[in-house]
Amino acid sequence: MEVTGGHYGDRVTTELSIDLGGRTALVTGSTQGIGQAIAVRLAQAGADVVVNGRTEERVAAAVAAVQDAVQGATVRGAAADVAADDGAAHLLAELPSVDVLVNNLGIFAPTPVLEIDDAQWRRYFEVNVLAGVRLTRSYLPGMMERGFGRVLSISSDSSVVTPLEMVHYGVTKTAQLAVTRGFAKAAAGTGVTVNSVLAGPTHTGGVEDFVKELVGDDLPWDEAQRRFMLEHRPQSLLQRLIEPTEIANMVAYLSSDLASATTGAAVRVDGGYVDSILP
Fold it and tell me: For residue 229, what are the contacts with CB-CB under 8 A and spacing of at least 6?
């Protein structure tokens, strides 16, 4: 790629490539969907990838899937429920240091706001917010000491466009943006960046179930997706669900040296869903 640099208009030639060789990356909740796509993309960029999920069986299957997708990939599994104190402690004992932390673990389900009880509110905060807080708090000091690190939390358009059908989910994703900004301030000037990736409506197995729950499960998938976008996400400029790899591409970039000047941000990969001219 040829670019113009400096105040003198010097012509320089450089290549933009994402190289994560020598970096260890942990992706929580990566046995399927967006998390697994991120694990694959980071492995393609040369990172040593740690796949995480709650059970040994699912983690082993996900590790095999990444290895099948990326020949020669260095990938291993870490089975632990990072939303629980003991599960996070187990993971941290097994993996005390990482260069890239991707807080991808999250749960969602439609529930009328007046029917969300205290137990549900607590569960959503534990999984969608506190799990990431706990791991970031644990890994960030080491990153700061080494002068390099990337912390990324997979947020959602629901963080700024609260969905009526799942307010509890939207609130936790809003909290995630604030937490990201706070940790980025704590890491100021250290070479470590902390960002959120604001994902739009994305095509995963869980979202397929969610779509069918909202528009009916008797429709062919293409028609169900079309009706969902038209009736429930009409402001999307993409006018289709985003593919997980499209989210993973942004994560890989933000994990690299190329994104050294991006921190404390909510970077949108939302298909234009959020109606705003600001990031």
Answer: 201, 236, 239, 240, 241
Please state the separation of Cα 260 from the chain's center in Å.
18
What's the mean per-residue pLDDT of the chain?
94
Residue 6, SS3? coil
| Segments of the chain assigned E as strands | 2-5, 10-13, 24-27, 48-53, 75-79, 100-103, 149-156, 192-199, 266-269
SS3 26: strand
Please tell me the total number of residues recorded for the chain in this structure: 279
**All domains in the chain, ordered by first residue:** 18-202+242-269 (3.40.50.720)
- Exposed e or buried b per residue across 64-88, where buried means at least 16 C-beta atoms within 10 angstroms of its C-beta: ebbbebbeebebebbbbbbbbeebb
246-269 pLDDT tens trace:
999 999 999 999 999 999 999 999
193-249 pLDDT, tens digit each = 999 999 999 999 888 998 999 999 999 999 999 999 999 989 999 999 999 999 999
Are the CB atoms for 106 and 125 separated by under 8 Å? no
User: 241: which DSSP letter?
Assistant: P
CB 269 within 8 A of CB 199: yes
Q: What φ, ψ does residue 154 adopt, rounded to 5°?
A: -85, 105
Q: Which residue matches tokens 């109606």?
A: 275
To the query of whether residue 139 is one of the catalytic residues in this protein, the response is no
Which one from 124, 139, 169, 273 is the annotated catalytic residue?
A: 169
Q: CA-to-CA distance for 140 and 113, rounded, in angstroms?
A: 35
Q: How far apart are CA 264 and CA 110, in angstroms?
A: 29
Distances (CA, A) of 161 to 139, 145, 158, 216, 233: 30, 37, 5, 24, 10
